[in-house]
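User: Second chain of the day. Same drill as before.
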Amino acid sequence: MSVDVISPPVVDSRYEPLRVMVVDDSVVIRGLISRWIEAEPDMAVAASLRTGLDAVNQIERINPDVAILDIEMPELDGISALPQLLAKKRNLIIIMASTLTRRNAEISFKAMSLGAADYIPKPESTREISAADIFKHDLLQKIRHLGAKVRRLKSATTPSIVPSPAAREAAPSFRSVTSIAAQAQLVKRPFSATMPRALLIGSSTGGPQALMTLVAEIGAVIDKVPVLITQHMPPTFTTILAEHLARASKRPAREGVDGELVKAGQIYLAPGGKHMRAVKQGANIAIALDDGPPVNFCKPAVDPLFTSAIDVWHGAILAVVLTGMGSDGMRGGKDIVAAGGNVIAQDEASSVVWGMPGAAANAGICSAILPLNQIGSKVVRLFSGDRS
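Assistant: Same format as last time:
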């Protein structure tokens, strides 16, 4: 599996490096992650600890910005240490790390409901170069983008300036004092007059919670049209997410199966490790899965789903881009808009990371940029014929 080459991050010299606490009972994993972090110009290892108990006892002395917290550890496991760490440092960014088992997937979802910012799956073996490279890329990106919200200014006085375009590109989750006002000035397209016949949703970091909030509010839409979702997530985790979406929406929700027919009243979730597309199958519409290379570093990726839908529903599509890192969904969103469809993006204030929705918004393809708690009602109105 190939990994795209990326440019090194642009470092804003006004800020201290992010202080990262690595908590894992494996000395190999601790050493590997620590070496990766120390090689980054905008990060530093604040501590490398073996157990959750060590982390809880030492957090006030270490004062980290970000913690990488293993789930399975002696003395005090990750899920037990999590609330104690947050009680001692409320704004600590915690990223749960676990292997791809159903139990660990369930624990990771519980951890996010308890305040963890995100999770990352650890490869079964870091000896596999491709697995280690993907793990490294994903981990460093999560630390950088999630940690941007808690970065500390250096003590030396510096002018209050707006970050350069290069710095914004390197850290799209960085929020300047002018960003909210700038967001309000982004060009928004008028909604197309075409009634949508499908709802497509793309999400990444922070997406599981956002998706559960959204699907709980759009039951009337799910009953009318098929809903297809791509969430950046590995196998097993997508199985659990589908079960959570079914409970939240009170509608059938499951991972898409290659060749199955797409029908209204059902939520189809791209399975981890496969790209999901919608394709014509005679007079019907079906799910197509493929094992192609990652797109935008992701598999599943949002762009393949968005672009494929045009051949099926033409311009009768509403696409929603929720919180997430990177720009996945922007290119596919451009194609949807060019075909006559509409795109809605989650706003920056309610996003865990304003990467994906920010890319769509800044590309000028959105007809609305809304906080999460307003997207559901807007979607319902659009599928009821409101075009305002």
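The longest strand covers residues 43-49.

User: Great, on to the next one.
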